């Protein structure tokens, strides 16, 4: 990639971590956020202090932070959208008038079919720019902002899936950003990246089964206090996830296999690998049902996954049951989300959907 500045869209935990980390590696960075006070503080400090377990730590200078999208995107080759998936559509709408031919837009993370939603939104906005659109399965860092301008990184992943939409452009994406992100694996497509989002399977169902604890105000550790019944639900969800992958010809590891590969844990079952995961000690359970485990993971992941399953003719009764239960409890607090209609894939055949994803 050229030495043009990198734009970070999103000034939360991940956005600040990437802005500082990239700067420490010698890249120019600038940041967009909708909150003026966040931008003001970052401009006053001049950058982000990255602490903890990242490969590069220290104070990473940024060019500037701004609420002006046009100013932030101008002259950038790579634009990283580092926001919860509930904001992907609104950010696409804000970015559409200012995107230029040749720019790369990378969603971090994709959640499920985030790139499909983003592309449709740009088209609906009349954006004609020939951009290279990509998405990663998850964030490179496990991190939290101690305060604006100071981020603690608990861990940095050694590998994660990343793809272009369509995946026929993966070679181009790897050539242009592979040196910046050596941990990214570009041998997948948006179907695999979407199904690789295991948060959608580990968060919503067990959270609903914790309703009594949550609404009674009982403090608990989300993973350490996991129960065998919660694990059984996740196991059923994972079987459906793997069945969808198989229908699309994707070789996907089970959640147990993925945890054993990515985390410091042990065991043969979902219950064992979750409760034995060292990195999860101290992760407390939610104090309200209005939490991203439901408000984000259901409309922006499980809905999209069920849409993919329906196109492939794969039954997903457990996924649908979790969605139905959550909508019965939360009602209009849950967005409609990434339904087949909203994604623009309603009525597609399996072959048409594969062509959209793979080219």
Task: Estimate the strand proportion.
Answer: 15-25%
- Indicate the radius of gyration in whole angstroms: 20 Å
Assembly status: single chain
What's the N-to-C terminus distance?
24 Å
Shape: globular
Strand order of the largest sheet: 5-2-1-6-7-8-11-12
Q: By helix and strand content, what is the structural category?
A: alpha/beta
**What is the strand tally?**
12
- Number of helical segments? 18
Overall pLDDT level: 95
Ranges with pLDDT <50 over ≥5 residues? none
Reading the helices and strands in chain order gives EHEHEEEHEHEHEEEEHEHHHHHHHHHHHH
Task: Profile the largest sheet.
Answer: 8 strands, mixed
| Share in helix | 40-55%
How would you describe this protein?
The chain has helices spanning 13-24, 36-45, 69-73, 88-95, 114-124, 170-177, 190-195, 199-202, 204-209, 211-215, 228-247, 255-262, 270-275, 292-295, 298-312, 317-330, 340-343, 350-358, and strands spanning 6-9, 29-32, 47-52, 58-61, 65-66, 78-81, 104-107, 132-136, 141-147, 150-156, 160-164, 184-185. The longest helix has 20 residues, at 228-247. The chain has an 8-stranded mixed sheet with strand order 5-2-1-6-7-8-11-12, with helices on both faces. The protein is 43% helix and 15% strand. α4 (88-95) links the parallel β6 and β7 (104-107). The model has no long low-confidence stretch (mean pLDDT 95). It has 359 residues and is α/β, with parallel strands linked by helices. α4 packs parallel to α5 and α15 (298-312) runs antiparallel to α16. The radius of gyration is 20 Å and the shape is globular. It has 18 helices and 12 strands.
């Amino acid at each position: 990639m050229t030495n043009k500045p990198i734009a970070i869209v999103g000034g939360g935990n991940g956005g600040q971590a990437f802005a500082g980390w990239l700067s420490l590696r010698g890249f120019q960075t600038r940041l967009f956020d909708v909150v003026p006070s966040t931008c003001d503080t970052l401009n006053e400090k001049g950058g982000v202090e990255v602490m903890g377990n990242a490969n590069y730590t220290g104070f990473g200078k940024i060019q500037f932070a701004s609420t002006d999208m046009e100013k932030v995107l101008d002259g950038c080759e790579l634009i990283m959208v580092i926001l919860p998936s509930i904001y992907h559509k609104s950010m696409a709408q804000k970015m559409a008038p200012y995107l230029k031919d040749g720019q790369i837009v990378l969603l971090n993370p994709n959640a499920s079919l985030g790139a499909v939603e983003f592309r449709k939104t740009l088209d609906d906005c009349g954006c004609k720019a020939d951009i290279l659109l990509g998405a990663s399965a998850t964030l490179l860092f496990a991190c939290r902002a101690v305060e604006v301008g100071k981020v603690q990184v608990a861990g940095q992943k050694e590998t994660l899936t990343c793809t272009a939409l369509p995946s026929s452009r993966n070679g181009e994406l790897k050539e242009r950003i592979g040196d910046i992100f050596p941990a990214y694996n570009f041998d997948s497509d948006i179907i695999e990246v979407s199904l690789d989002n295991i948060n959608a399977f580990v968060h919503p169902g067990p959270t609903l089964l914790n309703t009594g604890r949550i609404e009674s105000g009982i403090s608990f550790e989300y993973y350490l206090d996991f129960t065998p019944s919660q694990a059984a639900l996740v196991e059923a969800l994972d079987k459906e996830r793997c069945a969808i992958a198989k229908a699309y010809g994707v070789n996907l590891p089970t959640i147990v296999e993925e945890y054993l590969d990515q985390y410091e844990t042990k065991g043969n079952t979902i219950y064992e690998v979750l409760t034995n995961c060292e990195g999860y000690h101290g992760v407390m359970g939610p104090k309200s049902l209005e939490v991203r485990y439901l408000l984000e993971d259901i409309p922006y992941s499980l809905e999209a996954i069920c849409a993919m399953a329906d196109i492939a003719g794969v039954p997903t009764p457990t996924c649908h049951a979790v969605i139905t239960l959550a909508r019965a409890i939360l009602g209009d607090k849950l967005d409609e989300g990434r339904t087949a209609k909203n994604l623009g894939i309603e009525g597609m055949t399996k072959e048409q959907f594969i062509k959209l994803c793979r080219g």
